[in-house]
């Protein structure tokens, strides 16, 4: 049964077990594609969620946060996955403000970038 | 020569589709859809042998897609596997009660779980992996 491997990240790096599993499932090419996608799409999704909030479109903001959570889980970015999940839960519970959740995710992504970049440089795409 | 089974995957996250294709395309013909309405029209136009259906789709979610599939004679008996990150206790029973044939957790860490589930549900299969 699937486990919650994405939660095992220590915070500043991607979970090695999740990455090893992806490499086993699809080789270095799949791993490289998923890391590149996470690297490129996380800032896009964050920016899109901010634009959606500014336009009072919470559904679109939540859709982007959900996508972010799912992709973070895939590459073992446990802290981002947890933050995105919290944001979803808060939104479902009626918390009106989502901007600070996006700030936290953005900070976490910035911390993750050195590890993500280093790993990206070592994989084909 | 026997035809390769066709699997339709309805999943809005590109990365999950990429992983799903990587895990399945050696064995099956995989057709991908990013939204519920696109998946529905594609499936009804050319029904696959099995459907992998994300629950948390934007707009028309997986439960609603399933209702439409079950209501149409062209797709009423298709095996449909729920893909969901909501891995809490009781979810499995709830999804089966809604009419899903099986449930696979995301992210897909154990691809054997997915493959065994598909083989068990494909029409005419005995449930074993080649």
Annotation, overall tally of beta strands of chain B: 5
The end-to-end span of chain A amounts to: 29 Å
In N-to-C order, the SSE pattern of chain B is EHEHEHEHEH
Runs of chain B in which pLDDT lies below 50 for 5 or more consecutive residues are none
Low-confidence stretches of chain A: 1-10
CA radius of gyration of chain B? 13 Å
Measured as a percent range, the helix fraction of chain A is: over 70%
Architecture overview:
Chain A is mainly α and 125 residues long. Chain A has 4 helices and no strands. In chain A, α3 (78-92) runs antiparallel to α4. The N and C termini of chain A lie far apart (29 Å). The mean pLDDT of chain B is 91. Chain B has helices at residues 14-24, 36-45, 62-71, 91-98, 111-121, and strands spanning 6-10, 29-33, 50-54, 80-84, 102-105. Chain B is α/β, with parallel strands linked by helices and 130 residues long. In chain B, β4, α4 and β5 form a beta-alpha-beta unit. In chain B, α2 packs parallel to α3 (62-71). The A-B interface holds A 1-6, 18, 21-22, 25-26, 30, 33-34, 37-38, 41, 59, 63, 66-67, 69-71, 73-75 and B 12-16, 18-19, 22-23, 56, 58, 85, 87, 104-111, 113.
List keywords for this structure.
heterodimer; A: 125 residues; mainly alpha; disordered N terminus; B: 130 residues; alpha/beta; 5 helices
